[in-house]
Write a structure and sequence with these properties.
Length: 191
């Protein structure tokens, strides 16, 4: 990402939109620092990442999507950029794991146990599946992120990694970052 950031910014400034795809990365952690830095440079930024299946779709009981975090940054002329970073699950998996470690209960509506039953037991949630925020709306956003990451050139990679992770292998993620020029339009014929 460090090597690609400046060429990405230059491409966005020149063409109006640019994308950077990262594959076979281990863990992205928070995405907000990446979009914040770009937004501070006057560009709109979107970052998404997919991971192994941990979230059931709305109405489902089996994991289909990763927690698929997304972050967005929007520059502001007279203040710090507007930035958000969130997962498509009601609660981030890391927060659920911390609750399990510390013996805390989860709020209702966060997870299902391994048998597909609603649970507030954090360890049962770790062994089960997380639920998407907003029901089918969160499911749709989760699917969008899976497809964006896949379209970024890593569909087979995501599928293989997901299988490896389910079998106890190393967990990789795929990521797509897009930077869009905020002001001005594209010249005719630019795309």
């Amino acid at each position: 990402l460090d090597r690609g950031r400046q060429p990405l910014i230059e491409a966005a400034r020149e063409t109006g939109i640019a994308a950077l795809s990262l594959v076979r990365i281990f863990h992205m952690a928070a995405l907000w620092p990446e979009v914040e830095a770009i937004a501070e440079d006057g560009l709109c930024a979107l970052a998404v990442t997919s991971s192994r299946a941990l979230v059931a779709p709305a109405g489902g009981t089996k994991a289909m999507f990763g927690t698929n975090p997304m972050a967005f940054g929007w520059p502001r002329r007279d203040g710090p950029p507007l930035v958000f970073d969130q997962a498509v699950s009601v609660m981030a998996r890391g927060e659920v794991m911390i609750a399990a470690r510390d013996g805390h209960a989860l709020p209702e509506g966060v997870a299902l146990d391994a048998d597909g039953n609603p649970t507030t037991d954090a360890q049962a949630a770790v062994d089960g599946v997380l639920l998407p925020f907003g029901g089918y709306k969160g499911s749709s956003i989760g699917m969008m992120i899976e497809l964006l990451a896949a379209e970024a050139g890593c569909l087979q990679e995501v599928q293989r990694i997901t299988q490896d992770a389910m079998e106890g292998g190393i967990e990789f993620e795929s990521s797509l970052r897009m930077r869009v020029r905020l002001l001005g339009g594209l010249d005719e014929g630019a795309i």
